[in-house]
Amino acid sequence: MNIARASIEKPILTWIVILGCLFGGLWGFSSLGRLEDPAFTIKQSVITTRYPGASAEQVAREVSEPLESAIQKMGEIKTITSVNQPGVSLIEVEVKSTFDGTELPNIWTKLRAKVRDAARDLPSGVGEPLVNDAFGDVFGLYYAVTAPGYADAEIHQMGTWLRRELLAVEGVADVELAGLPQEAIFVEPELSLTVAQNVPPQAIVAALATADSEAPAGSVNGDGRRTLIEAPAGSDSVSEISGLSIGVGGELLNLYDVASVHRGRVDHPSLILRHNGTEAFSFGVAGLSTENIVEVGHRVDARLAELFTQVPEGVTLSPIYQQHVVVEEASNAFLVNLAMSVGIVVAVLALFMGWRASVVVGVTLLLTVVGTLFFMAVFAIEMERISLGALIIAMGMLVDNAIVVAEGMQIAMLGGQSSRQAAGETAGKTQIPLLGATVIGIMAFAGIGLSPDATGEFLFSLFAVIGISLLLSWVLAITVTPLLGHYFFKRGVAGGAGAYDGPLFRAYAATLRGAIKARWLVIAALIGITIACFAGFGMIKQQFFPNSNTPLFFVHYKLPQGSPIHETAEDLAVIEEWLAEREEVVSYTTYAGQGATRFMLTYGAEKPNASYGHMIIRTAGIASIPALQADLEEFGRAALPQGEFRTRRLVFGPGGGDPIEVRISGPEPAVLRALSQQVIATLEEASPYILDARTNWREPELVLRPIYATDRAQSAGISRDHVASTLRFATDGIAGGVYREGDRLIPITVRLSHDATSDLRDQPVWSDTGQHFLPIEQVIDGLDYEVQNTLVHRRDRVTTLTVGADIPSERTAAEVFAAVRSAVEEIAVPAGYALDWGGEFESSTEAQASLNGQLPLSLLVMVLISILLFNALKQPIIIWLLVPMSVNGVALGLLGTGLPFTFTALLGLLSLSGMLIKNGIVLVEEIDLVRAEGVALREAIVTACVSRLRPVVLAAATTILGMLPLLGDAFFVSMAVTIMGGLAFASVLTLIAAPVFYYVFFARSERKAQNAAAVPA
Fold this sequence. Notes:
By secondary structure, the chain is an alpha+beta fold. It folds into five domains: 1-31 and 354-492, Multidrug efflux transporter AcrB transmembrane fold (Up-down Bundle); 43-135, Alpha-Beta Plaits, CATH 3.30.70.1430; 136-182 and 267-326 and 549-650, Multidrug efflux transporter AcrB pore domain like (Alpha-Beta Plaits, 2-Layer Sandwich), CATH 3.30.70.1320; 183-213 and 233-265 and 701-788, Multidrug efflux transporter AcrB TolC docking domain, DN and DC subdomains (2-Layer Sandwich); 502-539 and 872-1016, Multidrug efflux transporter AcrB transmembrane domain (Multidrug efflux transporter AcrB transmembrane fold), CATH 1.20.1640.10. The protein is 52% helix and 18% strand. It is built from 32 helices and 30 strands. Strands 1, 2, 3, 4, 20, 21, 28, 29 and 30 form a nine-stranded antiparallel sheet that branches. Strands 5, 6, 13, 14, 15, 16, 17, 18 and 19 form a nine-stranded antiparallel sheet that branches. It has a four-stranded mixed sheet with strand order 12-7-24-23. Helix 1 crosses helix 14 (419-443). The protein is elongated. The two termini are 43 Å apart. The mean pLDDT is 85. One of its GO terms (molecular function) is xenobiotic transmembrane transporter activity. The chain crosses the membrane at residues 12-30, 333-352, 359-381, 387-411, 432-452, 458-484, 520-540, 853-870, 952-973, 979-1001.
């Protein structure tokens, strides 16, 4: 049964399809989940283990190594990296890309079990390893709160209140606070008094440890009921803590007799946060994965508006990043782009085919788009940057099927056929070739969409949306288009004027005859142009993912390793003053000690380090970023020469690392450092575009180590721990319990007053044996300085140092990498050491490798479909010969605009190949059909190609013009130029090269057939 004819004879079914697409699309658009970026799983977990008092190398050897050995036994693990610092091990575990998000919970459970088993054999003094598998949570609603003049306790209370209230908002998964002031209760004994009274610091610590503890007190039974007994209330104020009694030598002393007690901020906080130069704290809100982030964002905004009517005067809420606003703007922009694209298609078709055809094709296109939205909602494909882009990409491809059917039907009806006859004949000839060509167009994206790595997960919605929309376009082209043609197209008179007698068609027919006549010259010219364009393609800048179109950029600032956090914060204040004078700056948020909360899926914060500073700078638009970035770099490098100052744009897509990155692995840290200096020198010599070359081990630090006098100390009853405790008391302080304030647990620290001026060698150390103090210099042989690595990195259980470098904004990583690669790889390394590339090269190589692993299967399917369509080999060869030539227009377009060839441009190239093959199939199929009617080869080629001129040109024109809205999108601009330039050239290939190749391939068989027919005569 002919589907197209049936759609006219049984219109009720077709109208059900039309209304289903229309109303289903409206429902789909309203119910689709909305995100900024596609949800790809960050398959990483972080294991934190504390080992107080150990050096970085001890931590690596005694903590990280045993844990890593246990973890590597898991077959699911791809990479294990660790950062080892004095007293703390930070291990990152990355799962292989072949495991999806649904398998991760079981993997993390298995990981916890491995870590728990390995922890039993760790040295005494090592804390329990903590496994954090929520490392990839995204807090897309990100705000800063400033409260100048308020007490730290009030700020804490405010932050806790906000978190509690926002967690009650429907759709909110979590709220993360950062930057709250870190307080402590400081107990500072008067040294002369404690020594005179023989009050060791440990006695004070023991008294404080139980001052506010919670302990069960039992229960009593009476009168048939059980009554619980609570423990006595603990110290609930600083004054009560100072009134504690200390038992020493059978006597009681009040704490205030020998020490001062006060409350204040810790000396070394983990984070200092400011917004627009004012001290602040931040909170990030994460929505449930099943919720529409736009709706969640509006609910959070509404709740915040209510809450901030209750906050005191002077407290200010400022957005740092609002994902829901970005997503809503993108959705609205999509509607505008969609309307523009449909309008462009209708206008072009009306100009060249008349208003009737434009309405038929335009309505089919609109139904295809809204129907795609319906199926996106059914299959839970969110509306985000990639899926919206896929709809725009597909827009040009969607009209092809409808144009072919509408064109054929309209011409047949003008020739006198009825609408039923025209629909049946046109669809009967083209529906199978169009289906095959549609599947080939879908398969062009299968290699990317089915790639198992993070890039494939990130771009899966592209493949899914294009697949749904193209298949739907074919279904609607053979059902809805014939019915609409039945309503709109007019029937002509048989034997009337030819549909292809116009001057344009005659000019094309004459050109085509000339090309066939000079076929060898045409083929030579095509080969020459292709070779030249391939050479030109090598001159195009290469880039993995393009810069984001979000008007944000970052500052990274690094002082020498070991610099205090307050010095980092003070240096960044200089930058804040400069930014405050710039009109194009909307806001800036400063972080000293670590990076921001993960507010975007593609944002990765630096690991905590007191000497590291970070800034998020928002501008009025992305156009102002390059100039501001250049000015800021110039100012920052001049104003802060003591540190490493650099800026970086936000980049779309998954990835990681520096633009240029070299990993050096081997056993000896000294050799690794020596090799790193050689690598840095080689990089800087090989290219002038290497900026801020650095190592992730940073600078070694000076460590002060007491020389323990074993004989004297042990005779006096003084152990190494006593010496360490005394020195800690004299500097950072000793933990002495907690102070409870509501739901807060504020640490109590016992330490020597900062006003004390005594030398470390003068500190008294308590002897448990003699029950008296001794000068510490009697149990040590002085203090010695030692140079230590305080940042020791490991990768897959091998000590690894990484050299990273930035590049100028006008250069791409691929360009600079090509200049330095051979020089670095020629460096001779000792046996047992290795050099490997990381950064953008590694990310892009992995993505390309994954893609290459999928492409052969995709190409095989595409080739097989083309062979099965024709049941022959010559026709598919003709079509596939055109594919390499599609690069010609791409090279001209990208070179002409100066845009890099990005990963999205690769998508455009694949899309282009699908379009080219599709047009080639329809054209070659038509030539075969005309030849089957007995027409001579040359005339069959001309006749068939003239009949396909309008569909090919219109499909190309509508696609090229449909890309215009994407030229303003930073993510898709290189892809749009790729498709526009490539398709313009590909249309010439389809209309000139394909017929010429066809003639060359079939001329000999034609002559043989003619000779065979002439022999009997």
